[in-house]
User: Which sequence fits this backbone?
């Protein structure tokens, strides 16, 4: 919540500054929309940048991938779960959690 | 696999950074430069600085609404 308040107050301050500049005729009236459009464009660029950086830093966990492939290639893995479907689903879920845990530690 | 990921990420971030620097230069720095400077050759007239993003934004919004409308129509047709 505090973060949102900080960002909103910053936005209000910048818009007040822009309105003061407009009223004092330093910036011509035809260029009124320049600042809001600049902020929208920079927000879009920032989003794209964060997405690009996230893609570059995405960890693929090759160890877990190898282990998982090895485990899935054994038929005994599936035969042991024929009776109990809940424990099979639980194992899949715990694998998923383990991989997520590894990915969170950058 | 990792190399393709990193290439795509690098491409995306470089595109966004270049757009940001070009736009910042265009909007903020260029008005304070003399009109005879050679750098004005590389930038479009200042009026386009407002028109282009507005045009792009309007196009994006219209494409989005067309997509949403198509999805809604498709779901209604399936139900009926």
Assistant:
């Amino acid at each position: 919540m505090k973060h949102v308040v900080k960002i909103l107050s910053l936005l209000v301050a910048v818009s007040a500054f822009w309105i003061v500049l407009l009223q004092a005729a330093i910036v011509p009236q035809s260029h009124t929309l320049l600042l809001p459009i600049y902020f929208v464009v920079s927000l879009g660029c920032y989003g794209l940048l964060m997405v690009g950086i996230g893609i570059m830093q995405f960890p693929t966990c090759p160890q877990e991938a190898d282990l998982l492939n090895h485990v899935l290639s054994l038929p005994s893995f599936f035969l042991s779960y024929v009776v109990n479907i809940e424990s099979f689903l639980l194992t899949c879920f715990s694998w998923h959690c383990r991989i997520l845990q590894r990915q969170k530690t950058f | 696999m990792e190399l393709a990921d990193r290439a795509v990420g690098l491409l995306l971030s470089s595109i966004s950074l270049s757009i940001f620097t070009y736009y910042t230069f265009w909007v903020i720095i260029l008005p304070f430069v003399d009109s005879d400077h050679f750098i004005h050759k590389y930038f479009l007239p200042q009026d386009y600085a407002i028109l282009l993003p507005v045009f792009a934004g309007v196009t994006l919004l219209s494409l989005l609404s067309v997509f949403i409308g198509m999805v809604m129509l498709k779901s209604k047709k399936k139900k009926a």
User: Anything to note?
Assistant: Residues 29-103 of chain A form one domain. Chain A touches chain B at residues 31, 33-34, 37-38, 40-42, 45-46, 48-49, 51-58, 60 (CB under 8 Å). Chain A has a mean pLDDT of 83. The CA atoms of residues 97 and 103 of chain A lie 10 Å apart.
